[in-house]
Amino acid sequence: MKNIVIVVGTRPEVIKMAPVVMELRKSSTLKPILLSTGQHRQMLDQALKSFDLQPDFDLALMQPGQTLTELTARVLTSVGSFLVERKPDAILVQGDTTTVLASALAAAYARVPLGHVEAGLRTYNFDAPWPEEMNRRLTSPLCRWAFVPTEQSKANLLQEHIPSERCFVTGNTVIDALLWMRTRLESLRVDSVQLAQRLGIPDSFTGAYLTGSRKPWVLVTGHRRESFGQGFDSICQSLLRLAGEHPDLGILYPVHLNPNVREPVDRLLSKHNRIALIEPTGYEDFIWLMDRCKFIISDSGGVQEEAPSLGKPVLVMRETTERPEGVGAGTCRLVGTDPQRISVEARVLLENPSEYERRSALANPYGDGRAATRIREILEREMIRD
Length: 386
What we know:
Blueprint (H helix, E strand, L loop, with lengths): L1 E7 L2 H14 L5 E7 L4 H10 L6 E2 L9 H19 L3 E5 L3 H13 L3 E4 L14 H8 L5 E4 L2 H9 L7 E3 L3 H16 L3 H8 L3 H8 L6 E5 L8 H16 L4 E5 L4 H11 L5 E4 L4 H10 L2 E4 L2 H6 L7 E3 L7 H6 L2 E3 L4 H13 L1 H8 L10 H14 L2
Parallel strand pairs: 1-2, 1-4, 2-3, 4-5, 5-6, 6-7, 8-9, 8-11, 9-10, 11-12, 12-13
């Protein structure tokens, strides 16, 4: 058996690596070892619980008030020591976090072959998103296997002189996770009132929007560093304007734990009776909410990928995106944090039924739910040669 270390440190990494872990457990030649850096402790644990996963090893590196420099050093040192001690046959990372870059460096120093899930995403602007664009750009040259979600992502790597024999188009594993979780939720037959109470959604919002009402409501998420400060003030002003222009509209906002997000959101939005602010949700609860909202306003990369599979248009609160396929397909629109742009695009989705239906029916450009299977098959084939 070949031992493959799968490193996760944040909620999105767990979500997108869970299908890979489950697929590798089916293999007769590969053994997955799930290693947690604990980069984001609470939200990481929440996501692990959603998929009934427990790390085989947990480095527990998160510290209060950690800086990127401190976290990078701890991940590099700790993952490096783990690889030297355990001597795995390969290591897999996902996405563009500090855990990814530092683990990739550790793998290079330990001479352990590296696979990068969701490789090749680019904005070609180091400041947007920061530091994610830097992390993924620096990780790519270190890879033995670049598992890219789309042909565009592969083209990005080829342009950077990454050898084509290292690039494999698989689709995005987030679609695998989404479809798996939706099937699970359908079997559980979730009760709307009980779920709302568990999430801390006010009874008034539940009664108006979640229990059979046809009133539209919008799901919001936001966490990007480049929006800290004035950007989040603008986001909040946009949501207030949206609620004011549409008297029947509800807005549900699971607020990220970062104080740079919570302070402006609480200050500006907490008193509005049609804007419900709740704590971050578990993955399965978030899928349930996505499946029932009218559309989504978000700066999340994962949401841009997931929402089309549920027929939900996305207004992306960013000026650039490393996921241009969604914009090209029409499932996503870039609106930045400007209240006027957000208002105009939201009005289209709320007041033009034919345009809403058209965008809801567009095919998801990010995959078919078999990305993790392709990754397993590629690794089985490639590692037999070693």
